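Amino Acid Chain and Its Fold in Token Form
===========================================
Structure side: the spatial fold of the chain, written down as a series of whole-number tokens.
Position: the record begins directly beneath this header, with no further notes in between.
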Amino acid sequence: MEVGDVREVTTGDCSELYYLDTGMYDTNEYGAVYIIDDDRPAVVDTGIGTNYELVREALAEIGIDEDDLEVIALTHIHLDHAGGAGFLARDYPNADVYVHPIGTDHMADPSRLVAGTKAAVGQQWQYYVEPEPIPDERIVEIEDGDSIDLGTHELRVHAAPGHAPHQVVFEDPQNNAVFVADAAGIWVPEIEEIRETSPPSNFDFEQCLADLETLEALGPDVLCYPHFGPRFVGDDLEAALEEYATVLEEWVDAVAQKRDELEDDEAVIEHFAAATDMADVWGEEKASEEAKLNTRGVLGYLEHRE
């Protein structure tokens, strides 16, 4: 899939669902935005904002005009998911932004969010743009148990705070699908493997495992990953989620062991940046920076646990 491509999701029983490759970090098949073409059209997550015009083009291609979009649903406020929300809210006047209560102030005034993102992503900030503030009256708070009615479809909100305390996943019962945010890891379709995601500053390993139990209880056939793309799991849901639990456990253990060995956090970060095996898929720069980000998150978790 190439940057800017829009595909209909035909996985499982999905209908009226599309996804776009936003070209996040100048990398193919890393960042997806989902579009639901229902009575109340919706966008699920928005990317980092840099290529938000690709979302506009995708909406137009699907047939959703500027006055038609009504819902911008954010799984969480990390800027690789929420960075484009303000631009879309500005250009689509009838669309409200749905976000966890922790995120509302950050969407209205993104300055602290920007500062935190710069600290977390390091050199990757070059791929971002400053997000557009969203007027308070355009922000709708959502919490566990809420539902966003789209018409034929609805987005049922389930808390999944392991990756970040403001993270939710959206269940679409009509499609028997869940928009998993970063609760189920990073799906790499090119190699059909799942990889860890553990960014600072709120990564919580035990809660991540609990979030996987939440996903299993929902029982979807299709997992819609923002990183990257829809994945049919069907009867293999439990195995798929257990696989990610194992990946995450082994990753946290590896960082902990290397931390004990080197006794220097920066050395640990550089070790895993050099040891990444994802350069052939994402490119050397992105693979290295991703490893640094995830290592920082685990180191923060280990320090907090102590």
